[in-house]
Each structure stands twice: as structure tokens, then as C-alpha cells.
Design a protein that fits this description.
alpha+beta, 6-stranded mixed beta sheet, 8 helices, 6 strands, globular
């Protein structure tokens, strides 16, 4: 089975200033899902990216396992965040190297612009669209992974399951219920899939 990146997203998140993280740019590759599952899969990438970045402390990186997929999030101290949703096999170090490189480029290119965004938007950022194609093969990221090695040594990665991540008494089901990222149909799909323990896993 081939490793797979499903989505890479940039968000702005500043607790106290924003109610929820807001999307700045996103690229997805939903080719591993059946045609009729793709819109639901796209909504879940959005939902899970927002949910996890909201619970990532500033200046930290974390890796969260959910239903056989891995969500890696990095929130910079300036409020710029990046999230990669991939299958469980995609290497951690490569994921964070890619996110860090893309965030640096994005912050430089969009300096003074992204900080003013208050609601979900789609900033055109071609390196993101290139990355999700090129880095489906993690060996293509070898060069940037070597460059990022020093960063790895200074910023540890917090490893959590989705249950560990959520506050006590908060269940993913209730977040799904309240989410505006998910259509009624996707919520129903999640509920029935969760009952059969097979939601959103890439086969």
C-alpha cells in the first residue's frame, strides 16, 4: 500500500482574538476515496484540521492518530498554523519538514496579509498545490528533511490520540454534531461509520 497525503491546510489561530481557527489556504488529494465519498472526505479534512489546530498550543507541534489516519499540526507563535492529514504510514519527520518549509514560504509571500484574515478564505498559493502532488512520495522531501533536522531537535512533537486531545467530557461525536464544516449528510455518514468503526479510513 502506497503512503498518502490527503490534505495540507494553512490556518490562522489566535485564541482570544478568534472564535475558531480560520482557513487561509488548502490543497487536497482525494483520489483514494470513491467518487461519492469525496465531498464527505473533503469536509472531514477541514473539520479535523480545524479541530486539532485549535487544540495545539502556540509554538508546538503535535501528531494525532484518528481512525487509521494521522493528523500533524504545527502552530507558530505568530498564529500561523499548518496541518497535514495523511495515512498512518506517512513519516512524521517528513510531514513536519514539509509543513515548516511551506509555512515559511507562505509567511514571506503573504506577509502583512494573512494576519488580517478573520474568516475562512482561499489564498492562492501554488507551492501548496505542487507539494501535495510531489510529496506523495516522501523520498522527494529528503533534501528539506535534512535541512529541517535542527528544528526537530529543538521542538518536540506531542503524540496524542483524538480522545487524549479533546477536553474531558468532550466527545468527537458532539463536535461533529456542532460543526459547520460538515453537511447533514456527512454527519449521518460519520455516525453510521463510527458505529461500524470504519469512518474515513483510507483503504
Amino acid at each position: 500500500k502506497r503512503m498518502k497525503i490527503i490534505g495540507i491546510s494553512f490556518l490562522r489561530w489566535e485564541e482570544g482574538r478568534l472564535e475558531e481557527p480560520v482557513f487561509l489556504a488548502q490543497a487536497t488529494d482525494l483520489s483514494s476515496f470513491g467518487f461519492f465519498e469525496r465531498s464527505t472526505a473533503a469536509q472531514f479534512v477541514k473539520f479535523i484540521s480545524r479541530t486539532i489546530l485549535k487544540r495545539t498550543p502556540k509554538g508546538k507541534r503535535q501528531s494525532v492518530i484518528h481512525e487509521g489516519n494521522t493528523v500533524r499540526a504545527h502552530l507558530r507563535s505568530d498564529g500561523l498554523g499548518a496541518v497535514m492529514v495523511s495515512d498512518g504510514e506517512y513519516p512524521e519527520r517528513v510531514s513536519f519538514s514539509i509543513l515548516n518549509k511551506l509555512m515559511e514560504e507562505f509567511a514571506t509571500q503573504q506577509q502583512g496579509k494573512w494576519q488580517a484574515v478573520l474568516q475562512d478564505t482561499k489564498i492562492a498559493f501554488p507551492p501548496l498545490d505542487t507539494a501535495i502532488v510531489e510529496y506523495q512520495d516522501p523520498t522527494k522531501a529528503d533534501k528539506i528533511t535534512k535541512i529541517q533536522k535542527d528544528l526537530d531537535d529543538t521542538i518536540g512533537v506531542m503524540h496524542k490520540t483524538i480522545e487524549n486531545l479533546l477536553e474531558r467530557d468532550v466527545k468527537l461525536n458532539s463536535l461533529v454534531e456542532r460543526s459547520t464544516d460538515l453537511s447533514a449528510q456527512s454527519k449521518l455518514f460519520y455516525k453510521s461509520a463510527a458505529e461500524h468503526n470504519k469512518c474515513c479510513v483510507i483503504s
